[in-house]
Amino acid sequence: MDPVIAAIRNDLLKNADPVIRETSQRFFREEITCYGLKTATVTAIAKKYWKEVRSRDKTEIFTLCEELYRSGYLEEAFIVSTWAHALSDRFEPGDLAVFERWIDTWINNWAACDGFCNHAVGDFMTRYPERVADLKRWANSPNRWMRRAACVSLIVPAKHGKFLSEAFGLADLVLTDPDDMVQKGYGWLLKEASRKHQSEVFTYVLLNKAVMPRTALRYAIELMPKEMKAEAMRKG
């Protein structure tokens, strides 16, 4: 084991709180494994050890990330998310295959999925917009977390008005997905897109509301005026 990994785990154990560990489970339907730390504490630990590893080769940092993921602990997955985001100025096109493998192999809850995809994968897509098309393959994956990842990877760019047509394309692919984690993922993407493109998202919702699950619909219209919400929610 790399000494940095050992030091990180020692810090996580030192700060572990059994009360937080117990209450954390309430936010997940699937069983999670966690030490029991507040997010701010995990972020501080991630930043502390980033200073030690940032000068290493990117491939070596990726190896450390995989060692963290293998533990199965939520907090160690959060450290991967922080480090990967910090590496964004060193991303290359081939890194997307690494990220895809990480999601498909190790991500098994919404918090790890969103923490990684919102920032690291979102950074990648902003840097290499021609690779957004790869997310369509993710949206067709049998893995629910890959399908959610396809959508939440565009959350931050969509918030700034980017990738509107791509967001609609992904929503089309998962429109009637039975998994509520996927429904919430694409609903959230449409909500963020509505910040800069309210009328376009509203039109999309009206065109698809007959088949769109109510969970996704409610997320998509969350930021809209109450009159628009009422029209979107109206049946028939």
Q: Low-confidence parts lasting 5 or more residues at pLDDT below 50?
A: none
**What is the chain-wise order of helices and strands?**
HHHHHHHHHHHHHHH
Structural class: mainly alpha
Average pLDDT, all residues: 96
Strand fraction: under 5%
How many E-type strands? 0
Principal-axes geometry comes out as globular
Main sheet specs: none
Q: How many helices in DSSP terms?
A: 15
Instruction: Assign a percent range to the helix content.
Output: 55-70%
Distance between the termini: 60 Å
Give an overview in words.
It is a single chain. It is built from 15 helices and no strands. The radius of gyration is 19 Å and the shape is globular. With about 240 residues, the chain is an all-alpha fold.
